[in-house]
Design a protein that fits this description.
Elements lengths: L3 E5 L3 H13 L3 E5 L2 H11 L3 E4 L8 H9 L9 E5 L4 H10 L3 E4 L4 H55 L16 H11 L4 H8 L3 H15 L4 H10 L5
Helix pairs in contact: 2-3, 6-8, 7-8, 8-9
Length: 239
């Protein structure tokens, strides 16, 4: 799907020449002949980049970008000012309101294309990095929630066992009393997985996996993983 560029320019000839060039470069172009129309099209089309003149009817380019930047979703939206206003104070004001490039008229279409391509590539990289960071944070949060749920379930099971009647016939010795999570870790250990691999499977940190392994060694009265696996096989705890 092509990236969308919003072009706000009140001169029809300039507007159409830039539009034709950018469409040949593979972009989808939305046109606006004044500032108010451009502002509305920002919300309607949500473009990936804005090219705008400064001197336009109803709403000039400075005010347009100030209004766009007030919305969090568009604060990093790349903006190119394309204008005949080329005094130093004009350029300073342009950068102050949030433009990324200031291109004076007369302009060269190839230069516009290079600026647009550079800004869009950088913007896409930033967006991709942000999405990856959000995905990583979500995965970490889910792992923490799963671990907390497992610990809570184990604590509830112990509490229920301690509150049960103490007058009962002791069960036969069928081996150590393992929690469901310890059984999961033991099964994956028997498959030859490392702590990190077990953590990935069970959404646990390697440090938490090591705690479960230590608990298994203690409950089975073994001193290393090899002895633990032999004990598990002999007591039919794993296949």
């Amino acid at each position: 799907m092509p990236l969308t560029v919003l072009l706000a320019e009140d001169d029809e000839g300039t507007r159409l020449s830039i539009c034709d060039y950018l469409e040949l470069e593979g972009y989808s172009v939305v046109l606006a002949s004044d500032g108010e129309m451009a502002l509305q099209q920002v919300f309607d089309y949500q473009p990936q980049l804005i090219i705008t003149d400064i001197g336009m009817p109803y709403l000039d380019g400075y005010t347009l970008i100030q209004k766009v930047r007030q919305h969090p979703a568009f604060r990093l939206l790349p903006v190119v000012f394309l204008t005949a206003h080329n005094q130093m104070q004009d350029r300073i004001r342009g950068y102050q309101v949030g433009c990324d490039a200031y291109l004076p008229k007369p302009f060269d279409l190839q230069e516009i294309g290079a600026i647009v391509r550079n800004l869009l590539e950088r913007s896409q990289l930033i967006q991709s990095a942000w999405i990856q960071q959000v995905a990583l944070q979500t995965a970490q949060q889910r792992a923490m929630e799963a671990e907390a749920h497992a610990l809570k379930t184990e604590a509830e099971a112990r509490s229920a066992a301690s509150s049960a009647s103490t007058v009962c016939i002791p069960p036969p010795d069928l081996g150590p009393d393992l929690t469901p999570r310890e059984q999961d870790v033991l099964i994956l250990l028997s498959d030859g997985l490392s702590n990190a691999q077990i953590g990935d499977r069970l959404f646990l940190s390697p440090r938490t996996v090591e705690k479960y392994v230590s608990s298994l060694l203690r409950k089975t009265d073994t001193s290393n993983r090899s002895e633990l696996l032999r004990f598990a096989i002999s007591h039919h705890l794993v296949s």
